[in-house]
Amino acid sequence: MKILVCISNVPDTTTKVRFVDDNTRLDTNGIQWVINPWDELALTRALQLKEDKNNAVESVTVVHVGGKGSEPTIRKALAIGADDAIRVNAEPQDAWFVASQLAEVVQQNEFDIIFAGIESSDYNGAAVGGMLSELLGVPSISAVSSMDLENDQVKIIRDIDGGKEQMTSQLPLVVIAQKGIAIEPRIANMRGIMMARKKPLNVVEPVEKDTLVEFVDYELPQAKPPCKMIDPENVQELVDLLQNEAKVI
Amino acid sequence: MAILVYTEHWDGQFKKSTFELVSYASKLAEAANTQTVALSIGEVEEDNLRQLADYGADKIISVNQQNLKYVDNQAYSSVIQQVADQEEADILVLAHNNTGKALAPRLSVRLQAALGSEVNQLPASLDPFMVNKKVFSGKAFANVKLKTDRKILTLAQNSFGIYENTQEPVIEKFEPTLSDDQLQTQVAEVEKHRDKLLLTDAELVVSGGRGMKTPENWDKLKALADELGAALACSRPVSDEGWRPHEEHTGQTGKIIAPDLYIAAGISGAIQHIAGVSAAKYIVAINTDQDAPIFDVADYGIVGDAMKVLPELTEAFRKARS
Ligand SMILES: Cc1cc2nc3c(=O)[nH]c(=O)nc-3n(C[C@H](O)[C@H](O)[C@H](O)COP(=O)(O)OP(=O)(O)OC[C@H]3O[C@@H](n4cnc5c(N)ncnc54)[C@H](O)[C@@H]3O)c2cc1C
């Protein structure tokens, strides 16, 4: 069984975002780039599944659509433990463009399980995994908070509003992962970082694709008025404010 | 031409979030000068279906087949596509919840329709079709142009409001064609959190962080939540430690919520936590540290020990109610 994990390269979650060129472009100055948090959890789970000797997982490959500048993030995924990596050499433009490139990679190489994160913490589209599965014509299960293998069968828990469903599926399958699939992301150790330098990182050229959406410009949220402080000895005042000023109670 | 809205139900019942979604679709239909068609999949009684017309649905299409009991993403997106084609719908509207997030991207590919996800208001213009959406987990907003003839929108929950607009609806049944190879996932078991107010539906939320110190101290949060009829939430370390179930974790990697009121006790207000609650209309912070970043985003703040403040607050609410 072969596993593919789709990786998005995003600004570190503590980044203060700024825009340039009339607010049409993210200012990338000084940004630390990291693996998208959900992808990192999915990768962690994929590696755990491979290490469990009861499972016949041959390999865990990571794939990323992005320019050469994102190679440090890919190397990080290799250092965490992925066996090899594929980079599609194109700047990601919209979810449809990225999913189309990923579909091409999957069609060229066969995979049984494909992981994607439920969303990417930059443009928050929550779209690539679902689009990829539709392009491939294979099933998808979304909001997956737990995944196991048993005799080459997937056992999945998906979160629904107000509950959970235990599921199985035919393969190949796109697993769209959220929190819970792994608790903590795995961190690379020194040995992993050394080994990552020698692992294959294959660069492929993109196929020609349009985009369906265009990000025209950006704005920052309006500043909030300062917080009203309430005397801890007089919580009654808070109740009054919530009732009469905010009117939420 | 039409706007097609996919209305999810829970054991045959719609929720307020469904009515918000239909309200949104019908306001959009009004702006686009077209009609609102609501689609329901699964077993929903006609009286319940009729409720959708109270919020502006002109036509209600019901699909009820045994093999559609559970959401299979391929099968459901195929059914929605068939109805969209029959109705010549050019805009599809779904909720930005787990189901909507699973189906909308598949439909985007099927219909070759641009996807505007997690929108929080009506489009700023219809030609060009411009929507506003949150990016960088709430640190900014983007104006996005949807460039295709057909479009799909997912609406952020609790972002729009519910508007009554009663119509005399046409109710129709629809029989989709589905082949077995469109049903490749199976649900073996369902576990429901019965009678529990769902965090994403709640208007009032009481939340605790690491500053609550021990899981036992949650009885103070619970007492306040019970008094208010609020749902419980927590910060990520709290669920990572197993003090609370992971469904209660809010933030960038957890649930994203937009209640009317969010009370945060013993939560520092890390940027990743705020990403999940910044759409709350009012935030109350209770924290011993007057410099905690939570006070930068809160509307009302109390610098104090949550163990002491929470019971007093519960008591004050009880008095105010009686
Ligand atoms: C990629 C990534 C994703 C993340 N996603 C999330 C996420 O989705 N959600 C999330 O919450 N976090 C997330 N985090 C973690 C986040 O950075 C913070 O570590 C976390 O939110 C802190 O939780 P906390 O506020 O409960 O704890 P702390 O930061 O430890 O804060 C505890 C607070 O309690 C106060 N306090 C102590 N005692 C008392 C008392 N007696 N009464 C009142 N106040 C008291 C302290 O002053 C302090 O402000 C993420 C981190 C990363 C790197």
Give structural attributes.
heterodimer; A: 249 residues; alpha/beta; Rossmann fold; 9-stranded mixed β-sheet; two-stranded antiparallel ribbon; 6 helices; 15 strands; B: 322 residues; 2 domains; 7-stranded parallel β-sheet; 5-stranded parallel β-sheet; 9 helices; 16 strands; 29% helix; elongated; binds flavin-adenine dinucleotide
How would you describe what is shown here?
The complex is a heterodimer of chains A (249) and B (322). The longest helix of chain A is centred in the first third of the chain and has 15 residues, at 37-51. Chain A starts with a strand and ends with a helix. Chain A has one domain: HUPs (Rossmann fold, 3-Layer(aba) Sandwich), CATH 3.40.50. In chain A, the strands form 3 sheets. Chain A has a 9-stranded mixed beta sheet with strand order 11-10-9-12-8-1-6-7-13, with helices on both faces. Chain A has a two-stranded antiparallel sheet with strand order 2-5. Chain A has 249 residues and is of the alpha/beta class. Chain A is built from 6 helices and 15 strands. Chain A has helices at residues 37-51, 71-80, 95-108, 128-136, 190-196, 236-245; strands at residues 2-6, 9-11, 19-20, 25-26, 33-35, 59-65, 84-88, 113-117, 140-150, 153-160, 163-169, 173-177, 201-204, 213-219, 228-229. Chain B is of the alpha/beta class. Chain B folds into 2 domains: 2-182, Rossmann fold (3-Layer(aba) Sandwich), CATH 3.40.50; 204-321, Rossmann fold (3-Layer(aba) Sandwich). Chain B contains 9 helices and 16 strands. In chain B, strand 7 (129-135) and strand 8 form a beta hairpin. The mean pLDDT of chain B is 96. The chains are: A alpha/beta (249), B alpha/beta (322). At the A-B interface, helix 3, helix 4, strand 9, strand 10 and strand 11 of A face helix 3, helix 4, strand 5, strand 7 and strand 8 of B. Strand 15 (228-229) of chain A pairs parallel with strand 16 (300-303) of chain B. Flavin-adenine dinucleotide binds at residues 209-211, 235-238, 251-254, 266-268, 270, 272-273, 276, 286-289, 292, 305-307 of chain B.
